[in-house]
Amino acid sequence: MTSSFEFQTYPARLSDAERDRVLAVLREGAAMGRLSHDTFLRRTDLVLAARGIDELKAITADLETESPWSRKLFGTVSRISAFSIRLRRAWQVERLPKLLLPQPGPYPLRIGRDPMNGLRLSHETVSRVHAELSMQGGVWILRDLGSTNGTTVNGRRVTETVVVRDGDMVGFGRMDFRLSSGEQQPRS
């Protein structure tokens, strides 16, 4: 016969998914300014040390005040906001000056403020030797040359090299252009 001591049951171990859900709530609370950095760190430690679901609920009790209706509303507003940003970017791309892609040659096109560059851009946010554009393997490659104010393609910063295409939005410092091969594209 065995004693009742051997049949003690322990609460089930918390799953990683449960912890991840609570950590996501904490991250959102910190991002929205509802938690200070110190409070976020303290609560993160509590989540990792929690042994039961009740402990997890207590950690986020003051953050989960949204009803399903308000989550839907905020989700809709977020999607509308994202759409307006995409619309503004599309409008901006059409209004940008064109930067014609050069004829492919043996040397890359250097871009910057220096008069020796193939494309000279006289703007205080453009570095002396800012970037270079070259044709490699049938595709155009844009490379940032360690510029101070950065090179961007379609709003994303280029740290080394990136493939660019006709119609891409490129930026050198605060000067923005739309790449164009010079060929007329049919309007739809």
UniProtKB/TrEMBL annotation:
Annotated membrane-spanning segments are none
* Keywords linked to the UniProt accession: Phosphoprotein
Q: Which SUPFAM superfamilies match?
A: SMAD/FHA domain
Domain FHA span(s) in chain numbering: 109-158
Matches recorded under Pfam families: DUF1707, FHA
Fetch the InterPro entries from UniProt. Answer: Cell_Proc_Reg/RNA_Proc, DUF1707_SHOCT-like, FHA_dom, SMAD_FHA_dom_sf
* UniProt KW Cytoplasm keyword: no
This one is known as: FHA domain-containing protein
Native organism = Streptomyces liangshanensis
